[in-house]
Description:
Elements: E1 2-5, H1 15-26, E2 34-37, H2 53-67, E3 72-74, H3 85-91, E4 94-95, E5 99-104, E6 107-112, H4 122-131, H5 134-142, H6 145-164, H7 175-185, E7 189-192, E8 199-205, E9 208-214, E10 222-227, E11 232-237
Parallel strand pairs: 1-2, 2-3, 3-4, 6-7, 7-9
Antiparallel strand pairs: 1-10, 5-6, 8-9, 10-11
Helix pairs in contact: 1-2, 2-3
Amino acid sequence: MILFIADLHLCSEEPAITAGFLRFLAGEARKAQALYILGDLFEAWIGDDDPEPLHRQIASAIKELVDSGVPCYFIHGNRDFLVGKGFARLSGMTLLPEEKVLELYGRKILILHGDTLCTDDLGYQAFRQKVHNPVIQWLFLALPLFIRKRIAARMRAGSKAANSSKSMAIMDVNPQAVLNALTRHQVQWMIHGHTHRPEIHSLTARGKPAFRCVLGAWHTHGSMIKVTREDVELIPFDF
């Protein structure tokens, strides 16, 4: 089986989620052939040089999973898009591009974080384009750590304020963007996170049945998608 998770938003203020993730890594994840983390593993990321103890703890736990024989792959989210090669080395994770097609048990599956599908949110997409500019990222990471922390705090506060005035429809995926992605990659399956709306949606793409599998966020319980030869399951579970 192959496991997928996303949107844990790990931070020191939410120890129950961290504890649940650590139990997941030491338990269910050990039975998998591979684990894919589809972004927003962390609530915020201001650079691999951040000495936050939680980051070392999580890197060590993922490394134990990888060393046990379960490879771990990571796609950046909108909260942790600055996770870099330093953390990847510490954790043993393999960093993937923002869109990746996997061939699993006869299914071709497109995996991504999911924020690029929310094309109706024009303000967010403009912001995303700016912060994914390599020059902007280089300049930010060159700043002293305490300044980066202040900037990140202001950005999180601004994001919460902006989202509070947006409709739920605007912050969800655009159906045409979903079809465009399936067509672009010539696939009938998609797995993503970001929207925090767990569901397996049936649709039609390229004239054939297609499926969009959405992971839930880890708030009061965990969420994973399990892909086996027989099925694709969305599974909530207790921490």
